[in-house]
Amino acid sequence: MNVSVIFIIFGFIIQNKGIYMKSLFLFSLILLALNSLLFSQTDSLKTTVIIENLGPKVNSEYDELNPIISPDGKMLYFVRQNHPKNTFGVEGSQDIWVSTLGKDSAWMEAVKMGKPFNIEQYNGIINVTPDGNTVLIRGAYKEGVYKGLGYSFAHKGKKKWKNPEMLNIKKLKSMDLGANNSAFLSNDGQTLLLSFSEEHFGEQNDLYVSFMQKDKSWSKPKNIGTVVNTEKNEAAPFLAADGVTLYFGSDREGGRGGLDIYMTRRLDDTWEKWSEPVNLGEGINTSANEAYYSLDAAGKFAYMVLYKEAVGESDIVKIKLKEEIQPDPVVMVYGNVYNKKTNEPLEADLTYEVLSDTSGIGGVARTNPDDGGYKIILPRGKVYGFTATAQGFMSASENVDATQITEYTEIKKDLYLVPFEVGQTVRLQNIFFDHNKATLRPESFPELDRVKVLLTENPKMTIEVAGHTDNVGSDDYNLRLSDERANAVRDYLLQTGIESNRINAKGYGETKHIAENETEEGKQLNRRVEFTILTK
After folding, report:
1. What φ, ψ does residue 77 adopt, rounded to 5°?
2. Which band of pLDDT confidence, cut at 50, 70 and 90, is reported for residue 3?
3. pLDDT at 28 over 50
4. pLDDT for 42
């Protein structure tokens, strides 16, 4: 019954009966009906979950397991069990398959990944990095040969994948003693979440965290604490693109049966303080086991395995997430890295950091060797700098302000690397000064430290640091300000131990503009600090 109709009926009763007690009784009944109506609507909203089966090009009559969606949402990796095309066929085999999202937003026919993948009987994918150029797989490999339990990285080479190489995780072999395990790599490539039991053949796993060290090894796994871990089984961790929201499977008390998927949020950088885990509820969790759960960077849809109404024993489905269980929004920065001299794509490494944080690298990525393409994901709330480096080229940097984003955002930034030659000029993108002053802000230090490393590694190199301005203000003022800023950069480098005779500093004011000054964008391009190689 419509709510407005109920109030009309009540008004009619009051006007025509005039009997207070009878009206009050009837009004109480109406309130009960209204209350029941409103609550039934609310409950319906709570339990409505939109589920989409990915269809016959992904799902088969065989089991599809462990879906991993690439952060850009365009590649779906998964495990297919006992398929005739698997390396070991229909008797106890698991191979990695992949499907690509077509231009019509429909998934294309899944194909089995070729060598160097799927060479063992049981193969599994842990996840893929945002750039799509690195995958983490199950098993410890060395030069393409399986060495036992563990995890390995495989990187894209030109036209094909390189052999996977094992991760060196300290003490993992002596700690991971249980019957099952799983893992997940954060999008920044710096943090590994692990699920295992420290008891021989134990089936009740806990979640642990391990961090990449400067020597590329991984720290001893650390238990993430009793808010997340219970006496029951905690498995299949998945850290969302925001680096804060963690989804995992657990059969703890209060679930719907078997493993249910829970969500918690990291509260600080110790990785030991978490919000109370929340069961994702009916529609996602059932009486069967739900464990493997994957989101793209936008965070609005989840991909997981469901067993009910499946073509085979299990199918991969896409689920639209309610807002309250979505992660925080992020920025995906994408583009290509080029040789500035030839405009050809470059194979390069990328690093990125929070510009106000001098503690070190915030994340790592690499370009596609064939087209120079890259993707990185930056959580909201901070200003980031990122740098591309390649052998024989001077590094190139850019920055992104993610402090104001309120929804998932994509930004394109191409990077041009200058060949390491006399006469070549490099713009220092991540140099920041106080307004109308020559005072360097701390966000500039990572960029300047890279110049220091360049000069240290090339002890015969000399450079000129040049300051430039837009046309706002007098010529004399701009000339003086640009000269003071160039010298501020020089002074910083001298304080790091670089010899004074290797760095000249000069201000050019507005005399060497590279864009028109009629727009704010043009003025911003003209306000810059550069250095030019004089000798090497």
Report:
1. -100, 145
2. very low
3. no
4. 29
Percent share of the chain, pLDDT over 90: 75
With residue 36 as reference, give the H or E element that holds it.
Answer: helix 20-47
Which among 437, 493, 425, 449 is positioned nearest to 359, based on CA atoms? Answer: 449
Shared domain for 393 and 428, answered yes or no, is no
The CATH number linked to 443 is 3.30.1330.60
CA distance 362 to 358: 10
| Whole-angstrom distance, CA of residue 439 vs CA of residue 385 | 19
Identify the domain containing residue 377 by its residue range: 329-420
Same domain, 177 and 190: yes
Q: Please give the biggest Cα pair distance in the chain.
A: 104
Q: Residue 2 has what pLDDT?
A: 42
Beta carbons of 430 and 385 less than 8 angstroms apart: yes
Q: Which of 266, 288, 310 is the last residue of a domain?
A: 288
Read off the tokens for 308: 């009910």
Give the list of residues 6+ apart from residue 431 with CB closer than 8 angstroms, or none. Answer: 440, 444, 447, 448, 489, 529
Q: What is the pLDDT of residues 286-332, one digit of tens each?
A: 888 887 899 999 999 999 998 877 777 889 999 999 888 899 999 99
Q: In degrees, to the nearest 5, what angle opens at C-alpha 397 toward C-alphas 416 and 509?
A: 90
Q: Are both 459 and 478 inside the same structural domain? A: yes
353 shares a domain with 248: no
Q: Within this chain, do residues 106 and 250 fall inside the same structural domain, yes or no?
A: no
Give how many domains the chain has, as a whole number. 5
DSSP 405-473: --S-EEEE--EEEEES-TT-EEE-TT--B-TTS-PBPGGGHHHHHHHHHHHHHSTT-EEEEEEE--SSS
Cα→Cα distances 267→163, 280, 297, 393, Å: 38, 19, 20, 40
- 455 has a pLDDT exceeding 70: yes
Residues 162, 172: one domain? no
Tell which residue, 197, 230, 229, 195, has the closest CA to residue 209: 195
pLDDT for 43 beyond 60? no
Q: Pick from 420, 452, 474: which residue ends a domain?
A: 420
Record the tokens describing residue 18, joined without a space: 């005039």
- Report the pLDDT value the prediction gives residue 386, as an integer from 0 to 100: 93
The predicted pLDDT at position 289 comes to: 84
Tell me: do 437 and 526 sit in the same domain. Answer: yes
Contacts (Cβ under 8 Å, ≥6 apart) of 477: none
Q: What is the mean pLDDT of the chain?
A: 88
| Same domain, residue pair 79 and 149 | yes
CA distances for 388 relative to 110, 341, 352, angstroms: 33, 16, 9
What are the structure tokens assigned to 513, written together? 């503009």
